[in-house]
């Protein structure tokens, strides 16, 4: 199994850490990829929020699939299993859809706003 860690910037200059795993299984005669899912830890800072989620192309834009947990001082953290690729996402704080202001890349969305972009590699 190979593993690497990358630090990503998020709101209020906090840091979110992404850990990337690649796993293989011996099937008896050949080696085949079992899972290329990467485990990502996201952090969002919103001191006045009551509930925070992350929604994006990795979870069919369904915030309830990725709730973040309050860890104190207005910080919210969530661990996600994401397939490699380019993913657009937004944080959802108390029903308000918010881009990641520190994302390195963004893309226009069909609603006149911007989605944050996260690229996950194996």
Describe the fold and architecture:
By secondary structure, this protein is mostly beta strands. It has one domain: Immunoglobulin-like, CATH 2.60.40.10. The protein is 0% helix and 60% strand. The strands form two sheets. Strands 1, 2, 3, 4, 6 and 7 form a six-stranded antiparallel β-sheet that branches. Strands 5, 8, 9, 10 and 11 form a five-stranded antiparallel β-sheet that branches.
Count of β-strands: 11
> Whole-number average pLDDT?
78
Helix count, per DSSP? 0
CATH class: Mainly Beta
**CATH superfamily grouping:** Immunoglobulins
SSE string: EEEEEEEEEEE
CATH domain topology? Immunoglobulin-like
Structural class: mainly beta
Question: Which structural traits does this protein have?
Answer:
mainly beta; 122 residues; Immunoglobulin-like
Brief summary:
This protein is mostly beta strands and 122 residues long.
Present the secondary structure layout.
Blueprint: E1 2-9, E2 15-26, E3 31-35, E4 38-45, E5 52-56, E6 69-72, E7 75-82, E8 85-93, E9 96-98, E10 105-108, E11 114-120
Antiparallel strand pairs: 1-2, 2-3, 2-4, 4-7, 5-8, 6-7, 8-9, 8-11, 10-11
């Amino acid at each position: 199994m190979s593993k690497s860690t990358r630090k990503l910037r998020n709101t209020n200059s906090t840091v979110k850490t992404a850990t990337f795993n690649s796993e293989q299984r011996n099937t008896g005669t050949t080696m085949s990829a079992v899972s290329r899912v990467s485990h990502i830890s996201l952090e969002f800072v919103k001191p006045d929020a009551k509930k925070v989620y992350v929604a994006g192309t990795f979870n069919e834009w369904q915030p309830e699939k990725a709730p973040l947990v309050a860890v104190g001082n207005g910080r919210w953290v969530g661990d996600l299993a994401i397939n490699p690729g380019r993913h657009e996402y937004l944080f959802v704080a108390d029903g308000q859809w918010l881009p990641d202001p520190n994302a390195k890349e963004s893309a226009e969305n069909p609603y006149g706003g911007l989605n944050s972009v996260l690229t996950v590699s194996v």
